[in-house]
């Protein structure tokens, strides 16, 4: 069961086909339970009222936007160092999913900011760095769509992904380094979470649910990419057979 | 002359002769700065306040515009293949090419910036700080931009994609460059802190840029 065993796309596809129904069901179950907890158990905030519910979408999306980029960075190492054949498939498949979660994070943050901060957008360190992350996702997707050869495109994107990883710690620690409008970290911090358990547990359940959803979508995108490459190869063989 | 020295001289000669387009960046810089007052209105106080930022953004765009030629011409005539197969380490070659490119296109931007600062009605001390930060910061833009130039070298129309890929990475340079350039005007703000961070970014990108650009050139070459 080493990682290298799944260098064979057929074996990998077999595993994915077996895993996908279970992962999909688990994601649906966790998100359903999480939403039940959010609307049934988690109290309204004494200042923010019901708008605090936005947090249960916003915070997991923000974590996953960084998770997605980290997957791409790890896959890029796999592409450049070990030349693992599925690494660039994984990086390419993670980009649109990560971009989607980053977009959800930005939109929910904006919707939450309007009633709480009185503005849709603030050029605060964390908001700006997440926006830069979103632009970098889109730039990487553009790079993949411009280079025709998937192997070459994978390596070029891997170099750029690794250069861009500098932004991830900046996003993570921006609220600690600069004293800005966005509140500082309140879940993963030294000295334990500052958020009340009645809100922490629903948040963790929804976050886990969204993470499983991310993995499910990522595996589906990887499967599609492998099939797309097979079609591309078959078409090229067909074309060369006609020409030859 | 050592191969590296010869390469530097060659790059400079190519850039300054017909078809090199070394001064095109400076001309573009002039035009970008000139259109700002048409957009924001000829309010001299406002222009003086946002002048350092305008000059920085203009220099950033002018640098990006000239970068797609960094490796393109060498690829077109086959020089890039010789460089890739040559004995000199590719990272060092990229570093020298960047240095020559900066002397040909970045240095003119720094030299004409005081003139453009006068158009913006900036105070003498702000002119000095802007010129100093541009001199220290524009090499970082060239080094970071070299990564984009390496990635897009195989593309026919890579210029726009290059800008899209490189601009997010230049945000920190812009932040600290403008912060340091504005510091003497906004009195309580310190000049040295952002200036030292800007210098650190330049040194940092002088290492990361050539290594990543060399990797990109190797991986995307045929």
Automatic annotation (TrEMBL), chain A:
Sequence ranges assigned to domain Cytochrome c assembly protein in this UniProt record: 12-182
GO biological process assignments: cytochrome complex assembly
Keywords attached to this entry: Cell inner membrane, Cell membrane, Cytochrome c-type biogenesis, Membrane, Transmembrane, Transmembrane helix, Transport
UniProt GO molecular function: heme binding; heme transmembrane transporter activity
Superkingdom of this protein's organism: Bacteria
Localisation: Cell inner membrane; Membrane
Membrane-spanning parts: 20-42, 62-82, 94-113, 125-144, 156-179, 199-222
Keyword Nuclease: no
Principal subcellular localisation of the protein: membrane
Membrane topology: Multi-pass membrane protein
Protein function: Required for the export of heme to the periplasm for the biogenesis of c-type cytochromes.
Entry's family note: Belongs to the CcmC/CycZ/HelC family.
Protein name: Heme exporter protein C
Organism: Prosthecodimorpha hirschii
Gene that produces this protein: ccmC
């Amino acid at each position: 069961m080493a990682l290298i065993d799944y260098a064979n796309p057929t074996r990998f596809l077999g595993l994915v086909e077996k895993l996908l129904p279970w992962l999909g069901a688990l994601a649906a179950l966790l998100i359903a339970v999480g939403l039940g907890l959010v609307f049934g158990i988690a109290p309204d905030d004494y200042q923010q009222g019901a708008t605090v519910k936005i947090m249960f979408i916003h915070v997991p999306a923000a974590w996953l936007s960084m998770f997605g980029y980290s997957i791409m960075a790890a896959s890029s190492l796999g592409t450049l160092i070990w030349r693992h054949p599925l690494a660039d498939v994984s990086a390419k498949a993670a980009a649109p999913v990560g971009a989607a979660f980053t977009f959800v994070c930005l939109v929910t943050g904006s919707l939450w900011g309007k009633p709480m901060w009185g503005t849709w957008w603030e050029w605060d360190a964390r908001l700006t760095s997440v926006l830069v992350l979103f632009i970098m996702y889109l730039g990487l997707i553009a790079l993949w769509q411009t280079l025709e050869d998937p192997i070459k495109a994978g390596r070029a994107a891997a170099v750029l992904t690794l250069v861009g990883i500098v932004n991830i710690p900046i996003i993570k620690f921006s609220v600690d380094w600069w004293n800005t409008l966005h509140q500082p970290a309140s879940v993963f911090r030294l000295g334990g979470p500052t958020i009340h358990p009645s809100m922490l547990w629903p948040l963790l359940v929804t976050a886990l649910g969204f993470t499983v959803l991310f993995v499910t979508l990522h595996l589906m995108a990887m499967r599609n990419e492998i099939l797309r490459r097979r079609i591309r190869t078959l078409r090229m063989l067909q074309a060369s057979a006609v020409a030859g | 002359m050592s191969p590296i020295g010869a390469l530097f001289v060659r790059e400079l000669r190519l850039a300054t002769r017909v078809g090199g387009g070394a001064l095109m960046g400076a001309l573009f810089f002039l035009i970008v700065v000139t259109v700002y007052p048409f957009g924001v209105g000829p309010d001299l106080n406002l222009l003086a306040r946002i002048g350092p930022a305008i000059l920085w953004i203009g220099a950033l765009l002018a640098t990006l515009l000239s970068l797609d030629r960094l490796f393109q011409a060498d690829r077109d005539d086959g020089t890039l293949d010789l460089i890739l197969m040559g004995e000199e380490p590719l990272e060092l070659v990229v570093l020298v090419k960047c240095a020559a490119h900066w002397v040909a296109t970045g240095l003119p931007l720094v030299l004409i910036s005081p003139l453009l600062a006068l158009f913006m009605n900036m105070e003498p001390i702000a002119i000095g700080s802007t010129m100093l930060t541009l001199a220290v910061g524009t090499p970082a833009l060239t080094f970071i931009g070299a990564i984009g130039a390496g990635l897009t070298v195989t593309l026919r129309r890579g210029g726009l994609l290059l800008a899209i890929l490189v601009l997010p990475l230049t945000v920190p340079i812009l932040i600290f460059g403008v912060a340091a350039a504005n510091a003497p005007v906004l009195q309580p703000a310190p000049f040295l802190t952002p200036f030292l961070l800007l210098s650190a970014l330049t040194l940092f990108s002088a290492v990361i840029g050539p290594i990543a650009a060399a990797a990109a050139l190797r991986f995307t070459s045929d």
